[in-house]
């Protein structure tokens, strides 16, 4: 499959979405609807339809598990039944259930909640019907984006609405601890997976066999989050390869004819957890998911969350994707349960994972608020006069044109009405000031006594928190737009600082920055060039750059240049500061110390107020992305001792990279001041 | 059952067998389809547009009775409108359709001198230019072959063959051995780019039973003897080889050896490689054979296995010493109904594990089970199923799903008490699998239909439907997924190619200790979709790729020929491929056996 084509492909702007709550709003009785006779379409029809307990039974009695138990029994001189009991317990911890009663009941509750707090749940219904009609012949895997807890509940609700069998959903163990919630999720098809740092080999063998079982003998669709966890930043995270490898194993072993992956992009007008995310990004520890927390979150019923958008992507057939690059016959000799994936197969998986993620990213629907956020963010960064509604409308209108030309899909009937709706939905974040200008809402934050053990980095002052939280929340809504503009912003940053360049040099600089930011704005290495070419075309078309005598120079679209510049700047500052701190750290340094020092430096810079430093620069997600990226470049080496993560720093290489990066840093004045500052602090 | 021959009875050896099949094959057999001229499916439409389908002739028990359900089935499954006039075949080929024979006059003269019968008649040549693949039959009916033999020769003994091979080798003429003409691998087709003259060496006039060895229970036969002739003649003397491939009415002993054939009753009698005790093959370098007629020997690599499966590419098999057995005293059919395919396969696995296989054991999938019902003259799917058992019992009491039911057919051979015991054991185990014995009639019908089913394709071709079968062998633990995946792949590929009406079904036809054999039937309506042979090849290629991905083999008994060449190197490894090529080079340095089977020769 030619993946590069899909990276070039322009988004179809003429997408069609239907509000599937509309029927609920109109019908006389939601109760009749939730209790209707269901004809759910399963993914993979089996001669004998399996039950949840059959799955557990077959896993326990699979040759793989049985042989392992015999081995353990002999090695430890303990009766096999002892381990069988353990396996049963593990299976009870993992396995999903199905209770149609609970599903209907939940369907009822969700209907009521959604009708109350949202203005609609939109979906490209034609695609759902198409996928439904394709189902039955092989495992189907729904792969939704993960930006809110609401994702999987709404996915199941969507399936319930469209009569698709509710998927077996891979969920994190943290849910299981929530009283009542764990059971309820399990009853609606969730199965549970421990975090990967757990290294209980019996557990993982059983878990893998359970997935194998669901894939080969199960009939339900599967659902999992390829990013592994909720994105707190509202932009895509690097894909994880563990679960998808387990899912693909039966395909590589030719035990299923194909595996269809359905990328699903779920966008929210307003994210349920926006406030929580802002705190987490700044390093305030995440409260453990407890049921009381859940009930507290029922407060949301008083709020309004606008619209939710499901974009169901074109299914990706594993068989077509891998084509002839995978020879499944290599597993023909020796029993399958004694075989594992080959290195070649393992290395074939990441491109598919990235492709699914790419399809998610292309699928996201942007709303007016994303454009409002981008505009306001830019205004604050420039310290410009705040816009009144008319000015805002013009800016958003203009941005909408730009974004659409870049392939983004923006859901909007009427810009002004859209903005007014934003002011209602996001009244906790934006409002009119006394001059009738649109501005950020300021709420005094008092943190009280903080358990410093739970702090992930530096303890920010109340003042900085009060100032920063609105900016970070706003950035959550800027972030989804960056997928479309970051490549332009990088090209611009290069030409702005280095002047006229030929294409080769431009590619060289672009490639340096793009790969440094490959985890921040997820892109697989092999796609960089394709994306570069396409971004160049757009940059010329939008007059950000111009091409003269085969060289690239600045274009004249200053307004857009300013916007691009400002939207990328926080990321440049964060990365540069991380490197600065690393340069001044000991050879081996704990992650927490690094993060705290970075935040401390930036906190000072923000307090300085002389020059606008965006509070989003403080966010740990970006700082960690930088550390991970440096790890991937072998400049840092991860060391984990007693559950504490440290980095070993290759300072020579770091200096090289830092010098290259600093070329593009808008102002170095801050950094040098900070450096002095830090050295002072170190002395204290 | 014939009386056992008395010991005193002197049989004159060699036995000159009068074959059922005449030297001019086309007088008895279809020149453009399968089997006998007088046996075929025909469609009658009366003025009221009532359709009646029946099978002609009395050779098979299904003959001359109306098959009332076939027409509706054809419409439902394959969108065939039987009221439409059928697409007829072109007439017998004429001289003008094909290039003149390239055989030099001098060679013909030498043949004359050797006293070897030969013909350059175009029909004789066309009849031996092909086997029974879809491509072959479709070409016969609608167009012309790119290349046909230049002359047909009929040697009558081993020495004739030696002379012919020498003559060809000296004059650099290509020889393609031809036996029963039932190959479904493209093995007898002439390589299209062959510039040299091509001789088709028809072995059918070399069909004597040279001698019988009652002490050791072996018979020495010439390779051209046809299955049914061999069985008939041996039967007269109270013997059988027990080798009964589905094509045995028409296929030859030499062909069996050359393709590594497998018979329906291999559980009792063995496959051809188990039956062959000694074999002679005439190569360009001389005759390959052994100096003894022993049950087994430890003497380096067994060169019988160079001959077995050589597909005419290394030489001509002329004489075979084959095992024979006394005719069984008792022969009994049986059948068992299973709730679904998977249970049926599990049962077979169990029977194989306990080595309780009767002479034959086969499991038809649901679609084939239904098709078998369709070919019944009586009314209703279930009217005759299972002596005395009614649909109600099966579906309501036993809870079987009509769309999942599978039927197993059984054939027992041996002493009466052994057969009884075997039946008892089998049916007992079947019960443990939740299956129900379904009587002898169904079993017998199943085996009879095996012979008739080959005729269906000729009818289908008249209504824009093409059909073909393909098979594989597979380890037990992968049988069910292979079956399922292949059907899925074919279904997907049909959709992709725009094929809306198709059938893809299967049966498990053989069991072994370590695996089984799955036999697929594929048919589709190609109206408006372009060349059906090209379409079919696409489908079969995808199917074979999937078979191999799922742990199946390139072929269990059909052979490689030209059709499955592309999977040969990977099947045997590169070393294996080179080993074959060096054997080829040693035995046939001039490549006169340029069949291009197994490997495309580099000419």
Task: Tell me what the structure shows.
The complex is a heterodimer of chains A (684) and B (603). Chain A has 684 residues and is α/β, with parallel strands linked by helices. Chain A has a domain at 16-270 and 305-363: Glycerol-3-phosphate (1)-acyltransferase. In chain A, strands 1, 2, 3, 4, 5, 6, 7, 8 and 9 form a 9-stranded mixed β-sheet that branches. In chain A, a hairpin with a 5-residue loop joins strand 12 (430-432) and strand 13. In chain A, helix 19 crosses helix 20 (415-425). Chain A is globular. Chain B is globular. The termini of chain B are far apart. Chain B is α+β, with helices and mostly antiparallel strands. The model of chain B has no long low-confidence stretch (mean pLDDT 93). Chain B is built from 18 helices and 20 strands. Chains A and B meet through loops of A and helix 16 and helix 17 of B.
Key structural traits:
heterodimer; A: 684 residues; alpha/beta; Glycerol-3-phosphate (1)-acyltransferase; nine-stranded mixed β-sheet; B: 603 residues; alpha+beta; Uridine Diphospho-n-acetylenolpyruvylglucosamine Reductase, domain 3; five-stranded antiparallel β-sheet; 20 strands; 34% helix; globular; FAD binding (chain B); flavoprotein (chain B); lipid biosynthesis (chain B); EC 2.5.1.26 (chain B); Alkylglycerone-phosphate synthase (chain B)
Could you outline the blueprint of secondary structure elements for this entry?
The complex is a heterodimer of chains A (684) and B (603).
Chain A: H1 3-8, E1 18-19, H2 22-26, H3 30-34, H4 52-60, H5 63-76, H6 80-94, H7 100-117, E2 120-123, H8 125-134, E3 140-144, H9 150-162, E4 168-172, H10 173-176, H11 181-187, E5 190-193, H12 201-217, E6 222-223, H13 242-252, E7 260-268, H14 274-282, H15 291-296, E8 307-312, E9 316-317, H16 318-322, H17 343-363, E10 365-367, H18 368-382, H19 389-405, E11 409-411, H20 415-425, E12 430-432, E13 438-440, H21 462-498, E14 501-502, H22 503-516, H23 528-541, E15 545-548, E16 551-554, H24 558-583, E17 588-590, H25 591-608, H26 620-632, E18 636-641, E19 644-649, H27 651-662, H28 669-683
Chain B: E1 41-45, E2 51-55, H1 70-78, H2 105-114, E3 117-119, H3 122-127, H4 134-142, E4 151-154, H5 158-171, E5 174-178, E6 198-202, E7 209-213, E8 218-222, H6 227-236, E9 239-240, H7 253-259, H8 266-269, H9 272-275, E10 276-283, E11 286-288, H10 304-307, E12 316-323, E13 325-326, E14 330-338, H11 341-353, E15 360-364, H12 366-374, H13 391-397, E16 406-414, H14 416-432, E17 436-437, H15 440-461, E18 465-475, H16 476-496, E19 502-511, E20 515-525, H17 532-549, H18 568-587
Parallel strand pairs in B: 4-6, 5-6
Antiparallel strand pairs in B: 1-2, 3-4, 7-8, 8-12, 9-13, 10-11, 10-12, 14-16, 14-17, 15-16, 15-19, 18-20, 19-20
Helix pairs in contact in B: 2-5, 16-17
Keywords (chain A): Acyltransferase, Membrane, Transferase
Membrane topology (chain A): Peripheral membrane protein
GO molecular function (chain A): glycerol-3-phosphate O-acyltransferase activity; glycerone-phosphate O-acyltransferase activity
């Amino acid at each position: 499959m030619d993946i590069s084509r899909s990276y070039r492909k322009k988004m179809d702007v003429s997408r069609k979405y239907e509000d599937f709550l509309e029927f609920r709003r109109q019908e006389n009785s939601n109760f009749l609807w939730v209790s209707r006779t269901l004809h759910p379409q399963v993914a993979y029809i089996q001669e004998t339809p399996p039950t949840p307990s059959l799955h557990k039974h077959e896993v326990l009695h699979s040759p793989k598990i049985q042989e392992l138990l015999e081995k353990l029994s002999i090695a430890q001189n303990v009766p096999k039944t002892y381990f069988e009991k353990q396996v049963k317990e593990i299976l009870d911890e993992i396995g999903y259930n199905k209770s149609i009663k609970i599903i209907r009941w939940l369907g009822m509750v969700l209907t009521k909640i959604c009708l109350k707090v949202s203005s609609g749940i939109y979906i490209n219904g034609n695609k759902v019907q198409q996928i439904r009609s394709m189902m039955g012949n092989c495992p189907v895997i729904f792969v939704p984006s993960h930006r809110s807890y609401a994702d999987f509940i709404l996915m199941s609700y969507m399936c319930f609405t469209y009569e698709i069998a509710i998927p077996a959903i891979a969920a994190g163990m943290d849910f299981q601890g929530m009283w009542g919630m764990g059971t309820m999720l399990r009853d609606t098809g969730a199965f549970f997976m421990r975090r990967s740092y757990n290294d209980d080999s019996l557990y993982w063998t059983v878990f893998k066999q359970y997935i194998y079982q669901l894939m080969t003998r199960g009939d339900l669709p599967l659902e999992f989050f390829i990013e592994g966890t909720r994105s707190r930043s509202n932009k895509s995270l690097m894909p994880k390869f563990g679960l998808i490898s387990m899912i693909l194993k039966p395909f590589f072993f030719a035990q299923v004819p194909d595996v269809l992956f359905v990328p699903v992009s779920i966008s929210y007008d307003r994210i349920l957890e926006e406030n929580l995310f802002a705190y987490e990004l700044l390093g305030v520890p995440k409260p453990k998911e407890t049921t009381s927390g859940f009930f507290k979150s029922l407060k949301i019923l008083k709020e309004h969350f606008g619209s939710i958008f499901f974009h169901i992507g074109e299914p990706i057939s594993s068989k077509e994707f891998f084509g002839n690059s995978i020879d499944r016959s290599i597993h023909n000799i020796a029993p399958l349960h004694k075989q594992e994936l080959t290195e070649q197969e393992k290395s074939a998986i990441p491109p598919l994972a990235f492709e699914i993620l790419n399809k998610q990213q292309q699928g996201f629907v942007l709303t007016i608020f994303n454009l409002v956020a981008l505009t306001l963010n830019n205004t604050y960064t420039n310290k410009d006069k705040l816009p009144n509604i008319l000015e805002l409308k013009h800016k958003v209108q203009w941005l909408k044109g730009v974004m659409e030309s870049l392939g983004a899909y923006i859901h909007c009937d009427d810009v002004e009405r859209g903005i007014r709706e934003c002011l209602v939905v996001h009244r906790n974040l934006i409002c009119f000031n006394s001059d009738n200008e649109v501005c950020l809402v300021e709420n005094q934050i008092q943190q009280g006594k903080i358990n410093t053990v739970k702090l992930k980095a530096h303890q920010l002052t109340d003042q900085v928190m009060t100032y920063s939280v609105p900016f970070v929340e706003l950035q959550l809504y800027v972030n989804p737009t960056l997928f479309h503009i970051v490549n332009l912003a990088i090209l611009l940053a290069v030409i702005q600082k280095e002047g006229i360049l030929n294409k080769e040099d431009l590619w060289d600089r672009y490639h340096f920055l793009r790969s440094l930011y490959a985890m921040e704005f997820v892109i697989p290495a092999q796609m960089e060039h394709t994306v570069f070419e396409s971004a160049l075309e757009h940059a010329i078309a939008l007059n950000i750059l111009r091409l003269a005598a085969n060289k690239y120079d600045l274009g004249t679209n200053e307004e857009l240049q300013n916007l691009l510049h400002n939207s990328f700047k926080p990321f440049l500052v964060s990365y540069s500061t991380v490197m600065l701190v690393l340069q001044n750290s000991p050879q081996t340094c704990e992650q927490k110390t690094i993060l705290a020092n970075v935040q401390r430096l930036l906190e000072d810079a923000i307090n300085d107020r002389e020059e606008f430093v965006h509070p989003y620069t403080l966010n740990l997600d970006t700082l960690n992305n930088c550390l991970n990226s440096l790890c991937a470049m072998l400049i840092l080496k991860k060391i984990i001792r007693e559950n504490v993560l440290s980095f070993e720093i290759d300072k020579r290489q770091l200096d090289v990279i830092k010098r290259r990066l600093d070329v593009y840093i808008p102002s170095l004045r801050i950094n040098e001041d900070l450096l002095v500052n830090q050295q002072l602090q170190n002395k204290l | 059952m014939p009386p056992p021959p008395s010991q005193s009875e002197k049989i004159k050896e060699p036995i000159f067998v009068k074959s059922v099949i005449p030297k001019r094959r086309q007088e008895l057999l279809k020149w453009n389809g399968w089997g006998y001229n007088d046996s075929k499916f025909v469609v009658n439409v009366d003025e009221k547009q009532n359709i009646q389908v029946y099978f002609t002739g009395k050779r098979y028990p299904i003959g001359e009775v109306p098959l009332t359900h076939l027409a509706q089935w054809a419409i439902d499954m394959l969108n065939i409108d039987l009221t439409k006039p059928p697409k007829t075949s072109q007439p017998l080929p004429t001289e003008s359709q094909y290039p003149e024979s390239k055989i030099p006059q001098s060679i013909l003269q030498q043949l004359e001198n050797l006293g070897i019968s030969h013909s350059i008649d175009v029909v004789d040549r066309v009849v031996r230019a092909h086997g029974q693949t879809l491509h072959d039959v479709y070409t016969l009916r609608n167009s012309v072959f790119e290349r046909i033999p230049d002359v047909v020769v009929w040697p009558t003994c081993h020495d004739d063959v030696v002379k012919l091979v020498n003559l060809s080798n000296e004059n650099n003429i290509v020889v393609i051995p031809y036996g029963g003409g039932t190959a479904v691998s493209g093995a007898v087709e002439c390589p299209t780019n062959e510039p040299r003259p091509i001789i088709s060496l028809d072995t059918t006039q070399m069909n004597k039973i040279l001698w019988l060895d009652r002490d050791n229970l072996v018979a020495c036969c010439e390779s051209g003897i046809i299955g049914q002739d061999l069985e008939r003649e041996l039967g007269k003397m109270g013997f059988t080889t027990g080798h009964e491939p589905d094509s045995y009415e028409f296929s030859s002993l030499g062909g069996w050896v050359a393709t590594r054939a497998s018979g329906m009753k291999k559980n009792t009698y063995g496959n051809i490689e188990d039956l062959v005790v000694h074999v002679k093959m005439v190569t360009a370098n001389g005759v390959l054979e052994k100096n003894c007629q022993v049950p087994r020997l430890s003497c380096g690599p067994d060169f019988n296995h160079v001959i077995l499966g050589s597909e005419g590419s290394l030489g001509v098999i002329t004489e075979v010493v084959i095992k024979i057995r006394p005719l069984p005293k008792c022969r009994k059919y049986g059948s068992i109904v299973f709730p679904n395919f998977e249970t049926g396969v599990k049962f077979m696995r169990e029977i194989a594990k306990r080595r309780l296989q009767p002479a034959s054991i086969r499991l038809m999938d649901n679609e084939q089970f239904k098709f078998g019902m369709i070919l019944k003259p009586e009314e209703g799917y279930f009217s005759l199923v299972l002596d005395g058992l009614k649909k109600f019992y099966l579906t309501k009491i036993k809870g079987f799903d009509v769309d999942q039911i599978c039927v197993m057919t059984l054939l027992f051979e041996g002493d009466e008490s052994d057969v009884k015991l075997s039946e008892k054991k089998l049916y007992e185990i079947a019960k443990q699998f939740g299956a129900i014995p379904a009587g002898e009639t169904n079993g017998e019908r199943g085996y009879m239909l095996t012979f008739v089913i080959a005729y269906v394709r000729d009818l289908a071709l008249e209504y824009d439907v093409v059909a073909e079968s393909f098979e594989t062998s597979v380890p037990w633990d992968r049988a069910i997924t292979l079956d399922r995946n292949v059907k899925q792949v074919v279904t997907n590929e049909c959709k992709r190619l725009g094929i809306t009406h198709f059938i893809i079904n299967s049966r498990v036809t053989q069991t072994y200790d370590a695996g089984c054999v799955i036999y697929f039937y594929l048919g589709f309506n190609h109206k408006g979709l372009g060349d059906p042979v090209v379409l079919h090849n696409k489908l079969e290629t995808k199917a074979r790729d999937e078979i191999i991905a799922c742990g199946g083999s390139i072929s269990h008994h059909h052979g490689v020929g030209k059709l499955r060449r592309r999977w040969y190197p990977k099947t045997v490894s590169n070393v294996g491929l080179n080993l074959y090529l060096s054997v080829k080079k040693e035995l046939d340095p001039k490549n006169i056996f340029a069949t291009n089977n197994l490997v495309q020769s580099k000419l």
